[in-house]
Amino acid sequence: PFTPSNHHQQQPRSTTIQSSQTLSTRKELYEKDFPLYKQPVEVGCFSLDSQRRFFSDDRQIRYYVEPDKSPNFDLRDGYKDRYVKRDENVKERLDHILRWIITNLSKLKSKGTTNSSRALDFDFVTWRGHLTKLLTTPYETREGWLLAVTRFNSTLYISEVETEAARRERENRPERNHEMMYWGYKFEQYMCADNNHSLPDPSGVVNTNEAFCTVVHTRLTDHKLLFSGEVDCRDKDPGAPPPPACYVELKTSLEICTPKQHSNFHRFKLLKWWAQSFLPGVPRVVAGFRDHGGTVISVDTFPISKISQLIKNEHNCWKPTVCMNFCSDFLSFVKRVATEDNHSVVYLFSWEPHRDVTYSVHRDSRLSFLPSWYTEAITS
Ligand code: A3P
Ligand code: MG
Ligand code: MG
Fold first, then answer.
1. Which of 171, 175, 185, 192 to mutate to test the pocket of ligand 1 (most atoms within 8 A of CB)?
2. Which atom of ligand 1 is nearest to the CA of 129?
3. Is 370 exposed, middle or buried (0-12, 13-18, 19+ CB in 10 A)?
4. Residue 276 alpha carbon, nearest atom of ligand 1
5. Strands 41-48 and 211-220, how do they pair?
6. Which helix (H) or strand (E) holds 46?
7. Using an 8 Å Cβ cutoff, are 178 and 83 in contact?
């Protein structure tokens, strides 16, 4: 029987031999030319309402409102009495993306008769967040991951499985961390309006069931990707460029007071911010810098295209090319490994820091994640 923790195969720490059964995550191996990454194109969007119900439209989109120079937002406000938190015990896997695909099948079905077994013209379908984890893997030293892969009608579906360690951490999260997770969403409420002619309403309820998601198509080297990612808000100017160029990612971060904090911000935070927004082609991050008490002191814009310049002064810093080359090589590894086209077979890719990526194969197990409503709708 499967348990996420007993599937990790141990390898020697410093092998230089690349077995075809594993994939190295050593960053030196990925310091090559920047790989082809086509400009992401939005092919659609969907919304999840206050009860996490799916709608194939943009009803949940919000509009970015430029804040004051020194805003003094109190991020703690409403935590006790105006907070509805999404149930993290519910595992949605790829369901919302699959629902979107089924709803939009007529505009997605591949044209022509050359490849009849292929219902969709994509090599991979996944969440943006799973790809973000892949991009940052060569630099990650704390948290491993598990990615379940199923090949179905020649498309590879990638869905994350929570590790034992992540589940333990989630179930033992200190109260302080619960409150700090709320702060990020409260910041969004201070910065976003529901219409392009209204203002933010900080007296309202923060409900983390609500989401607006973009669905984008792009290509990384020879991998055609379809993925979806949650978008915080958009430019409210109707003359703004079309999506995803009008989207804005919101972040909070502790104010930077010491050289050490400055260096950590560049080395760790900007890596995560860059990876998350670069993938769907979101051009800017607007960051609220807060004190320890949860008051936002200042707000700053970080254009994604400027981040690689910003970090160049940092010694031993991360490199975008390493992130993208590792992701491309991982996807090639997945294509080589996951060969059986079967909706109930799962190839489970597993990684722990300082180890290689390994995998195991599971048939008709509780890891299978493609629902019958999906496989039946695609096949008919
Ligand atoms: P911050 O980004 O300000 O930290 P996102 O930035 O991706 O839109 O996510 C919105 C907020 O969700 C985050 O705000 C944070 O509060 C919370 N959040 C997202 N991912 C998280 C994670 N892995 N752990 C803790 N909080 C998380
Ligand atoms: Mg978000
Ligand atoms: Mg955000």
1. 185
2. 7
3. buried
4. 7
5. antiparallel
6. strand 41-48
7. no
Buried b (16+ CB within 10 A) or exposed e, 98-113: bbbbebeeeebeeeee
3-state DSSP assignment of residue 158: strand
List of residues 6+ apart from 356 with CB closer than 8 A: 11, 15, 19, 22, 23, 24, 25
Interface ipTM: 0.96
How many residues belong to the chain? 380
- pLDDT of 5 strictly over 60: no
- Mind giving me the DSSP string for 214-266? EEEEEEETTEEEEEEEE--EEE--TTSPPTTTTEEEEEEEE---SHHHHHHII
pLDDT digits (tens, 9 = 90+) for 235-279: 999 999 999 999 999 999 999 999 999 999 999 999 999 999 999
Q: Are 75 and 292 in contact (CB under 8 A)?
A: no
Distances (CA, A) of 15 to 312, 328, 351: 30, 22, 16
How many of the other CB atoms lie within 10 Å of CB of 116?
Answer: 10
Q: Does the Cβ of 229 fall within 6 Å of ligand 1?
A: no
Nearest to 204 by CA among 221, 185, 219: 185
Q: What is the pTM of this model?
A: 0.94
Can you tell me which residue has the tokens 């160029």?
245
pLDDT at 351 > cutoff 60: yes
Q: List strands edge to edge, sheet with 295-303.
A: 73-74, 295-303, 284-290, 247-254, 233-235, 63-64, 192-193
Ramachandran sector of residue 364 (left: φ over 0; alpha: ψ -120 to 50; beta: rest) = left
